[in-house]
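I hope you will forgive my troubling you with a question about protein structure. The record follows directly beneath this note:
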Amino acid sequence: MSNQLPEPDSAATEHSARLVALIQHEIAGAGGWLSFSEYMRLALYAPGLGYYQAGAAKFGEQGDFVTAPQISALFSVCLAGQIAEVLVKSGCRTVLELGAGSGLMAADMLLELQRLQELPERYLILEPSPDLRERQHHLLRQRVPDLLDRVVWLDSLPEKGFSGVVVANEVLDALPVSRFELGSSGALELGVGSHGAGLSLTARPAKGALKAFAERLVSMDDLPVGYRSEVCFAASGLIHSLGALLDKGAVFLIDYGLSQADFYSAERSDGTLRCHYHHHAHNDPLLYPGIQDITAWVDFTRVGEAALQAGFNVAAYTTQTHFLLDSGITAQLELRQTGSAVNNAQMSSQVRKLTLPGEMGEVFKVMLLTTDDVLPSSGFQGRDLRVNL
């Protein structure tokens, strides 16, 4: 598919070349081979050069992909309503958003929480990217100037003893993953080496946790030799970190993903890794380092297991469709209908994209993790998928 992609301009090409040089330096320092997870970390988060650290537009029509909050503000309105319920039930007054993207969801949620008279005392944003932090601040200053004093940007997770609501929309899919292949003599770990002026995928025998995970998969399912996929150890680490800091509250996780049985099916023989460049999706993570997004679907079974180990309750797990419908997106749409037929049709189309099975509705899942003294919100009264985990 790569030959169908738009050609990057000279500035983007130069930027990518600088990152490739950095990665090659890291490869040489590591003895000629980097794990894929380390390559992905550099490609996305290397200071000043990684995709999420550099200055190019990433979200929306001018970027590489569109997220649910950019499709319709009703997504953020519904999510804010559910957060408000948890704030009331728990008595907490703080919201922490992990990776706020363009800042649009934060702005729309703050406006809705203000309308509901449930504004948090503090709205924390954990954003490691200086570029994105600047863009978020600019947008919030434009959209919610009177609420900006409640917003605090963080460089790392809060200290232990935190109480509040944590929300992560399309965060888990951007965490580095380890890739593996099932060989005839055992599991192989896929990594990255230098190849002339560029990079190449290479393999070596898997070790440690990755080897154990791949061997467990083989024992559970009839997966063919040559089968490739990935596992995100970083997602489990993040969940454990949230469990360690959260004394009281809840965590909303929204992302595209599957249960483990579906994730590692024989039909999905090359895993779920996808790259996004100027609204084109392809499967070559080495093509444009630093100027394309690299993502992988979320294994929600693994996330749920990590949550239980971290002391959370897996209070709910459902599709985005059922979450939004139970959160009142239809009623919210009716409230915002105007006399303009064009506007009404556009808004209805946006809601369909968020909720229809062939669009985002079934692919995206919503998981709610809670501490023992917090009850689920009303957005999870419908289809309960926890039995599939």
About this structure: The two ends are 33 Å apart (CA to CA).
